[in-house]
Amino acid sequence: xxxxxxxxxxxxxxxxxxxxxxxPAHAQNDDSVFTVSNVHVEVEAADANTAKSKALQQAxxxxxxxxxxxxxxxxxxxxxxxxSAQPAQKWVQAxxxxxxxxxxxxxxxxxxxxxxxxxxxxxLEGQDISYTTASSAPFLVIPVYNxxxxxxxxxxxxxxxxxxxxxxxxxxxxxxxxKVPLPSVKLQASxxxxxxxxxxxxxxxxxxxxAQALLVKASLDVSNTAAGTVxxxxxxxxxxxxxxxxxPVELEYEAPPNTNLMEVFNTAAHNLxxxxxxGWKEKSAANLGDVKTVDVMVRVPDIGNYxxxxxxxxxxxxxxxxxxxxMTRDVAQLSLDVSDNGDLIELFRRYNFALTQGAxxxxxxPL
Length: 367
Prior knowledge:
Mean pLDDT is 84; it is low at 1-29. The chain folds into three domains: 3-28 and 288-366, no CATH class; 31-125, 2-Layer Sandwich (Dodecin subunit-like), CATH 3.30.1660; 139-285, Double Stranded RNA Binding Domain, CATH 3.30.160. It has helices at residues 3-21, 25-28, 48-71, 77-84, 117-125, 159-170, 198-207, 261-285, 303-314, 344-350, and strands at 35-44, 92-102, 106-115, 139-147, 150-152, 178-179, 213-225, 228-240, 249-254, 291-299, 319-327, 331-339, 353-357, 362-366. By secondary structure, it is of the alpha+beta class. A hairpin with an 8-residue loop joins strand 8 (228-240) and strand 9 (249-254). The relative contact order is 0.11. Strands 4, 5, 6, 7, 8 and 9 form a six-stranded mixed sheet that branches. The longest helix has 25 residues, at 261-285.
C-alpha cells in the first residue's frame, strides 16, 4: 500500500472514530440500561465496617430488583418477584459510591451499580418471560399543566415541570431516556392545544439534539371527602415523532387523602413514565424473533443530521442494534440488526425511510 492510500485510510478511520465519539452515550451502546443509579442506603451495625458491608449488599440487591423490573414486562409479575430475589453479586460488574457518611456504627451512601450486560442477558434468555434490553431513542419531554382555563407552560415553571426535571436530573427513568427543555424555552398555548403544533415541537426537540418529543399534559381534580382532601391527576402523553403516529397514553392517578401536591405530581409522573416504558417493552419484546443484519449507506451532511438519523433508527423497535462501520465526510455506512419480519422496504417506509437495494449495499434515505 502506498503512502497516499495509507494516509487516506488513516483519515477515514479517524473520521469514523470522531463521529462515533460525538454520539450521545445512549446512541453508542445500551450499557446505561444495565446501570442503576441513586440507590440510597443507610445501615447501622456493630461497627462502621460491618455497616458498610451490609449497606453495599443491600444496595446491590435493591439495584438488581430495579434492573429486573426495568427489563421484564409487568405482565410477568410473578416471575419478576422470583428473579429479583436471586443473589445479585454474581451479576455485578462495578459499584460507584457518592455522598458517603460514616460514623462509629452507621454507614450511608448513594450507590450506582453497573451490571454485567452479557451475563444478565444470558440469564434472562433462559427464562420463559417477555423482556427487552433495548432502550428507546430519548424524548424531549414537554410538561404542561392545565389549571382551569389556563395552561401553565414551560416559562411558568410549574410543579409539574419541576418533577419531570428531577426525573431527568436523577436519571430515574428506565428504557425511555428523557430530557426536559432548557429554562430559556418558551411556549404559546396555541403550540399545544387544541392540537399540538408538531412542526414546532419537533423543532424544539432538534434544538436539544433529539429527534422526537413527548407532550405531557396534566390536570387536577380536587375533592373534599370525610377522609380529607383527595387529589386526582389526569394525564395524557402524546408522542410527537417524525416517523410513526401513535395512540396517546392516558392515565389517571388518585393520591391518598391530604398528600402534598409535590408528592402527588411526583408519583403521577413516575406512574405515567412507567406506563410509557411498559408500552416500549411490549413493543420491543414482540420483535425479539430472528434477527438479520442489513448493511446500509446513508448521506449525513453534518453531525446534527447524523444524531437525528441514529435516534430515528433507535426509535424503531424492530432495530435491535446499530453499528457504525465506516464514515466519510458526508456518508455513513451502518450495519443494522433488524428483526426479520419479511418486507424490509415496507418496514422502513412505515417509519418514513426510503430503503432501496443498491448494487452491493442497501441505500437508506430519511423522508
